[in-house]
Amino acid sequence: MKTIxxxxxxxxxxYASPSAGQDARTLEYxxxxxxxxxxxxxxxxxxxxxxxxxxxxxxxxxxFRYVLQNIRxxxxxxxxxxxxxxxxxxxxxxSIDWLNKYIQLRGTTGQFYAEATDWLKKAEAEYLKExxxxxxxxxxxxxxxxxxxxx
Length: 151
Known about the structure:
Layout: H1 2-16, H2 20-53, H3 57-70, H4 76-88, H5 92-106, H6 113-142
Helix pairs in contact: 2-3, 3-4, 4-5, 4-6, 5-6
C-alpha cells in the first residue's frame, strides 16, 4: 500500500511541473528508494543468518526466500547461507545446488569456501544415503511374492 501511495505521489509530482531540476530530483528520489529497498533486503538477510545461527531453520528459510523473491541481484553470501540452511531442513538436493552456486560465484577465495565445501560434502553424503534408501525400499517391495487375484 505504501509503495502504491509513493508511486501515485511521484506520478503527480512528475506531471505537475516537468523541469530539468525536478527531473534530477525525481531521479535522485528513485535512486534513494532503490537503495532503501536494497538495505531492507540486506537487513532481512542478516535476520535470516541470525535465525540460522540460533537453530531456527524454518524462520531462516522464510527470511532467505523473502530476500530471493524481492531482490534484483542475489548476493553470493545468500547462496551460501541458503545452502547451509537447506541442509538443516533435510533438503539435501537444494543444499547441494546452492552451495555449488556459491563456489561457482566466489571460487576458492570466497569467505565461506572451506565451510561451503564441508557442508557440500555432508549434503552430498546425505543425498546419496537418501537415494540408496529409496532404491532399497523399491527393491524390497518389488522382490516380494504377491498373490494376485485376477478376479
